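Support reply, case 0932

Customer input (verbatim):
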Amino acid sequence: MIGLLNDEGEFQMEQMTSDNCKEMNQWFNSQPTESFDYFKPHGFEVKDLKVLASDHSFLAFIVRKYDTQEIVGYLMMRSFWWGKCFRGYMVDYRWRGKGISKKMNAKATEIAQYLGLRTFGTISPNNLASLKSAQAVNDVIILDTLPSGDYYVQYLPKNGHKVVF
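Our regenerated output:
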């Protein structure tokens, strides 16, 4: 276990490893098709997930409900040696609207700050839930609109807040 995702201890985060890729594949397969309308950062087959789990430039985390160990979310961060990282996340369809994506956004910002990474991503203008979640805990700067219509964004700590470790 990496740590608790919130102060109440309701959710925990653990690193995706080759040992839990099959479970993650089953979780991804249990999500409705529309969950992937805006989330296509990599393949979701066991072999794809195992490659990612062994890639040192890729941080992937499983978010679980602490008491039941049920998977409720997934957070990924792909970093590059020049100090950038791209992130994305998915919340289980049964757990949407409970603040989990806000917690994952905050944790991704905290991890990136700790590692000294500038954080970027893409958000579809049609995915207002994702945009609002990110804006709740980050200053989100729209840098460009991509040919696909998606926004290319930078995530900054809210109000310039720096996490101190």
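We compared this against your earlier run and they match. Two observations from our side: The chain has four helices and eight strands. Residues 74 and 90 are 5 Å apart (CA to CA). Please reopen the case if you see a mismatch on your end.
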